Amino acid sequence: MTFDKFVTVYKACGQPEAEIVKGRLEVEGIPVILKYESLGNVYGLTVDGLGQVQVQVPEGYSEQAKGIVSGSCEPDDSE
């Protein structure tokens, strides 16, 4: 099975968090890829997006995936 376009459904603050979210989605049968800058992974930094991991799913699964996971490591500016 091939997928044309992947979209970000979650932004994790690091690799361990991203792996947990990935596992949760895979249990539900949703294909997942993780997109990240390798430098952040090597040094364990989360500064200005460095170390942030984007959890991506095929576009057709995005609504289902968003219903399963919510949130991100970006601060909530609504307060």
Describe the structure.
With 79 residues, the chain is an alpha+beta fold. It has a single domain, classed as Alpha-Beta Plaits (2-Layer Sandwich). The chain has helices at 15-27, 38-43, 62-68; strands spanning 6-12, 33-36, 53-58. A 3-stranded antiparallel beta sheet has the order 1-3-2. The chain is globular and about 30 Å long.
Brief synopsis:
By secondary structure, the protein is α+β, with helices and mostly antiparallel strands. The chain is 33% helix and 22% strand.
Name some characteristics of this structure.
3 strands; Alpha-Beta Plaits; 3 helices; 33% helix; globular; 79 residues; alpha+beta; single chain
- Number of structural units classed as domains: 1
The CATH class designation is Alpha Beta
Alpha-carbon distance between the termini?
A: 43 Å
List the helices and strands in order: EHEHEH
Helix count, per DSSP? 3
Low-confidence stretches: none
CATH topology: the name is Alpha-Beta Plaits
Specify the overall morphology. Answer: globular
SSE layout and pairing:
Layout: E1 6-12, H1 15-27, E2 33-36, H2 38-43, E3 53-58, H3 62-68
Antiparallel strand pairs: 1-3, 2-3
